[in-house]
Amino acid sequence: MRTEPCVGARFIFVIRGYGYQGAKSQVRQQGEARRALVERRQFSGAMKGKNLRYLNEHEGQPICARAGFLLLEHFSLPAFTQALDTIITANLLRPGLFTTKTFGLTEGEVISDLGLVIRPDACLAHAEIQDLDLLVICGGYRTALQADEVLVSLLHGAAEAGVKLAGIWNGAWFLGRAGLLDGYRCAIHPEHRPALAEIAKLTQVTSEAFVVDRDRLTASSPNGAFYMALEWIKGLHDKALTDGIEDILAFEASRYRRIKPSLNVSVSGPLREVVNLMDANLEEPLEMEALCLYAGRSRRQIERLFKEQLGTTPQRYYMDLRITEARRLLQHTTLTIVEVSVACGFVSPSHFSKCYSAYFGYRPSKETRLVK
Question: Is the pLDDT of residue 108 over 70?
Answer without folding.
Answer: yes
